[in-house]
Amino acid sequence: MTHNEIISRLNNVHGSGNKVTARCPAHDDKQNSLSVSFQDGKTLLHCHAGCSVEKIVEVMGLCMGDLFSEQKIPPVGGSNRREIEKVYDYVDLDGKLIHQTIRYRGKQFSQRQPDPAKQGAWIYNLKNIEPVLYNLPAVANAIQNNNLIFICEGEKDCDNLKLKNIVATTSPMGAGKWRDSYSEMLTGAIVCIIPDNDEAGKKHAQAVAKSLYGKAKSIHICDLAKELPELPKGGDFSDFTATLGENASTRFKKVLDNAIKYQGEIIASWEKPLPFMDMELPPFPVEALPANLRNMVLAVSEATQTPIDMSAVAILAVISVCVQKKFKIQGKADWFEPLNIYASTIANPAERKSAVLALLSRPLYKYERQEKDRLHLEIERNATEKRLLEKEKDKFIAKGDRESALRVTEELNAFVEIKPFRLLADDITPEALISLMADNDGRMSVLSAEGGIFDILNGRYSNNGGVNIDALLKAHAAEPLRVDRKGRREEHIDEPALTIYLSVQPHVIQSLMSNITFLGRGLTARFLYSLPVSSVGGRRFETTPISIQVEKEYCDLCFDLLDYKNIEAPEIITLSQEAYVLSAAFASELEPRLIDDLEDIAFWAGKMHGAILRITGLLHVSDQPAVFAQSTPVSAKTMQSAITIGYYFLEHAKAAHNPQGDDKPTNEAKYILLRLKKHNLSRFNSGELLRLCKKFKSVDDLTQPIDILKEKGYLMEEVMQYTGTGRPPSNVYHVNPLFYEAN
After folding, report:
1. Residue 559 half-sphere exposure toward CB, CA atoms < 13 A
2. Could you give the CA distance from residue 97 to residue 88 in angstroms, rounded to a whole number?
């Protein structure tokens, strides 16, 4: 790089010509501690606070070779005096220089290391040191964060990938020189190998993959020429991008999509594993819904060719949005349940989850837009009044009129700000959710065909991966919610109400169930689960559209419930004597089961009666005009319908928490498969599996589930040879790659 290009990367540059000073980028420099000079074609850096040149160069995003001007690069000693084109630094985890690769004009290379006996001198070989991978600090960081790492044949490709904010590495001395020590540095990494387009490149890729197998978390190999047949022999990633120009990123994505997963050398002996038998789950009892809801559920299911369950659970959530915080249902003298619910439909991709949710939530979005338009002028006037009061206060303060300033301050404190009307949220943090509830009378809803909120709660927006679920726990139970944040207004909601409906893929629920915090604090116990039988493969193209009358009745119901305004507190829905008897009988039947057949999901089943009461309230308000909901007690028929729906959710909750309800060893075998799939392991030993699966206390606990997986063809055991010295090695289990392909 030129001297001026290097200076352009620094801050607060003073001076001119060949000598300047600047803020040192390697420490919190309050004054110009860095001296920068240009001598004999090289930029010299010196930090008077003691930062090393290597550290300064690293923070600037450069390598040591960049300090040599491209106009005057010093030749290497020797008779031929080849001209250096680029110098690539190989550093340790702390950024200290270990060795360098020198690239000469004409694509020739040599290696050198600093001479410990003579400062500034070089030894042109890598004797007596252990070489390291290129970009080692970035590689270590990528492994820690489960980010993809590319392995190239040369440093130039790595640097070109770095320009795209992609971590890439290589080994010194090119193809055929890979060492097992480099694989140790990549233990636990997710890697993709990009070989050069020649036979040597392919052999090198296989050798690297073989060395990494069992150490890296996953290994894929790309083929650039398959996407770009005109790539010249020996062409690499840099040639690929230079040829394609602006289209390179799009075309390279296709290369990655077609990358081959390396599965070791025993893949030919695998056969398709035997599936576990699926548990037969009951369909949603649609006849238990009031006619106006039932008709819409059946119409949406027919129009979208989706299971009835999907529409039925979603429609309960929509009614919950309409009435949350407007009504409570009284289970007995001292027991009241709000009518907001948390529910989730679990289905694979291509099941038309989004289409179902879009049709059923349409009245909510329509009502939200209508209210926003109606309140627009009022909100503008309200905001103007507040700004005028603030200006008036500032005017009195400027005049020194203390009494008037305090009077206006009191007016401002009492001023009620009108916020834009919101019913729904989607991809939102808990903090933002609380603010939305505070601005909307303590109500809010999250309806989504994705599981984004779980990603957020899992720590997507937290530097330490922490989990904040207080808002969800308290908003489900209508418990007071108070939030104090530095620099922001206090938010206090006496009775928060939140409805959640998520139509998600199975892996999202698996993530939810494996989160110890979610389980331990009862978040998973608050959800109603539905696992509908897939309609894929049997769907018709010609379908009956939703009739105008059915959709109008449904939309009118939603608007009637949304328009209902309770002035001070939720209205109380009471049970008729007959409904009360049914509720009490259910409680008597449920209680002993919590320590018997429902013991494994007692944390969910313990909340089942409360969930049934909430469903009772939703059915009750849907079956008549909202104004009569409080004055008309719940009938025995409505209570029995809610109990029937409750039993549906119980069976599906068993499946969600304990897939397929098999015996313990079989469930443990499935649990192992889930953990293997999450970490994408190709092989492991018993000790590694024990660390991966925390529920097992000893290696002996693994025997039965592993035997089941071996019998079904998911695992193959490799007996390791014992040499007779030291501790006998553990046998290795290889994972059937066809299991990953099926998933």
Report:
1. 13
2. 10
Interval 232-253: pLDDT, tens: 988 999 999 999 988 898 899 9
Poorest-confidence range of 142-146, 320-324, 446-450, 541-545? 446-450
Helix axes of 362-399 and 308-323: crossing angle, nearest 10 degrees:
30
Q: Which of 657, 570, 50, 643 lies closest to 288 in space, CA to CA?
A: 643
**pLDDT tier for residue 742 given thresholds of 50, 70 and 90:** low
**Distance of CA 724 to CAs 685, 718, 720, 727, 729, Å?**
20, 18, 12, 8, 10
Terminal Cα distance for the chain, rounded: 49
**Phi and psi angles of residue 542, each rounded to the nearest 5 degrees, phi first:** -80, 120
Query: Could you tell me which residues are beta bridge partners of residue 575?
Result: 634
Q: Alpha-carbon distance 615 to 289, whole Å?
A: 10
Q: What are phi and psi of 131, to 5 degrees?
A: -60, 155
Amino acid, res. 222: C
Which residue is it, tokens 């009666």? 609
Tokens (6 digits) for 115: 């001479």
* Side-chain half-sphere exposure of 386, counting CA atoms within 13 A: 14
Tell me which CATH code domain 136-262 carries.
3.40.1360.10
Q: Which residue has the tokens 């589930």?
A: 705
Q: Domain-by-domain residue ranges, the chain?
A: 3-123, 136-262, 286-369+434-659, 662-742
The pair phi, psi for residue 330, each rounded to 5°, is -95, 115
Q: Do residues 83 and 68 touch, judged by C-beta distance below 8 A? A: no
pLDDT tier, 455 (very low <50, low <70, confident <90, very high otherwise)? low
How many helices, marked H, and strands, marked E, lie in the chain? 28, 26
CATH number attached to the domain at 286-369+434-659 = 3.40.50
d(CA 216, CA 261): 12
Class of the domain covering 662-742: mainly alpha
Looking up tokens 């009637």 gives 560
User: Is 145's pLDDT higher than 70?
Assistant: yes
Lowest mean pLDDT among 368-382, 500-514, 692-706, 719-733: 719-733
Q: What is the pLDDT of residues 152-197, one digit of tens each?
A: 999 999 999 998 899 999 998 888 889 989 999 999 999 999 999 9
Looking at residue 140, its pLDDT comes to 95
Question: Side chain identity at 740, as an amino acid letter?
Answer: Y
Alpha carbon distance 38, 59 (integer Å): 20
pTM of the predicted structure, to 2 decimals: 0.53
Among residues 322, 356, 328, the alpha carbon closest in space to that of 564 is found at 322
DSSP collapsed to 3 states, 329-386: EEEECCEEEECCCEEEEECCCCCCHHHHHHHHCHHHHHHHHHHHHHHHHHHHHHHHHH
Q: What residues contact 159, with CB distance under 8 A and at least 6 apart?
A: 88
| Cα separation, 161 vs 655, whole angstroms | 45
Is-contact 575 331, C-beta < 8 A? yes
Q: What single-letter amino acid sits at 237?
A: F
Phi-psi category of residue 637: left, alpha or beta, with phi > 0 → left and psi -120 to 50 → alpha: alpha
Could you give the CA distance from residue 237 to residue 230 in angstroms, rounded to a whole number?
13
At 77 the pLDDT is 40
196 or 717: which leads in pLDDT: 196
pLDDT for the residue 457: 66
**Which of 273 and 365 is assigned the larger pLDDT?**
365
- What Å distances lie between residue 228 and 245, 272, 494, 570, 635, CA to CA? 13, 33, 63, 66, 70
pLDDT digit string, tens, across residues 279-309: 578 999 999 999 999 999 999 999 999 999 9
The answer to whether 459 and 465 have CB atoms below 8 angstroms apart is: yes
Q: What average pLDDT is seen over the chain? A: 86
Q: Once rounded to an integer, what is the mean pLDDT over residues 581-601?
A: 93
Joined together, the tokens standing for residue 45 give: 């850096």
